[in-house]
Amino acid sequence: MTDNQTVQAYTDAWAQSIESVAELIAALPTDSWNRATECPGWSVRDVVSHIIAVESELLGDPRPIHALPRDLRHVTSEYARYIELPVDKRRCHTPVEVVSELEYTVIRRCRALRNAKYGPGDLVRWPAGPLSRDITYLQLLRNRAFDVWVHEQDLRRAVGLPGNLGSPAAQVTRDYLLEGLPRVVARLAGAPAGTTVALDVTGPLEFLRTVRVDANGRGAMEESVHLAPDLQLSMDWETYVRLACGRVRPEAVAGRLRVDGDGELAARVLAHFALTP
């Protein structure tokens, strides 16, 4: 695909996922809104509020004026405080208000994306408080497709309504997460030169990838099948997402995770498997 086609693909993936979120929450009973998600300290309401907050900021809306409580145990950094503030501001909103705000935000954001004049390589601001930086427009769209889909799955697990696991944004997420795997194996887990680590994922998105560590200690992704890797991790797609996005620890999904080969290396790889803050 050309860069312009990729821009459209990321935009379409984001739109499909955020509209799926809107449909999901519109049908939720009131008592589902306070259910805990796998995001520490966040309920269903909070995850939806976070999605609204990021899209609103990308639209240029001012951040809310709000005094964030200092006793929120899951808020442990300035970045976390930045993310938490618009979420906490909306904790007094009713489900109807949150649903309406999301629907209106989606309409505005879709219009803004249709009218955007940015080229794929143009630099835009990624709003993340102390971690804010300039990234390309293409990266911004990819990040939003990834983030919204991952949070859609947070919501679906919390309310027991699985779905959209093989969607276009799920494929964006797969590619996004796999890019970080060579670094996990080679640098963070310290796998020695010549090591091969295979990842076998089944389910709606099924794939087999191998990371090989070269003589300089750098990891590279390969799509070829190695018959006897030093380590093979096998799991279903949803488990992979939960681990790679830091939603659960490996011991919590031990029954859905198979380890073949070097157990010590597996422990080091899994200890650094989460790629999201």
Automatic annotation (TrEMBL):
InterPro entries linked to this entry: DinB/YfiT-like (IPR034660), Maleyloyr_isom (IPR017517), MDMPI_C-term_domain (IPR010872), MDMPI_metal-binding (IPR024344), SCP2_sterol-bd_dom_sf (IPR036527)
Superkingdom of origin organism: Bacteria
MDMPI C-terminal domain span: 172-268
Domain named Mycothiol-dependent maleylpyruvate isomerase metal-binding: residues: 15-156
Presence of the UniProt keyword Isomerase in the record: yes
Entry keywords, A to Z: Isomerase
Pfam families named in the record: MDMPI_C, MDMPI_N
GO molecular function: isomerase activity; metal ion binding
UniProt protein name: Maleylpyruvate isomerase family mycothiol-dependent enzyme
The organism of origin for this protein: Kitasatospora camelliae
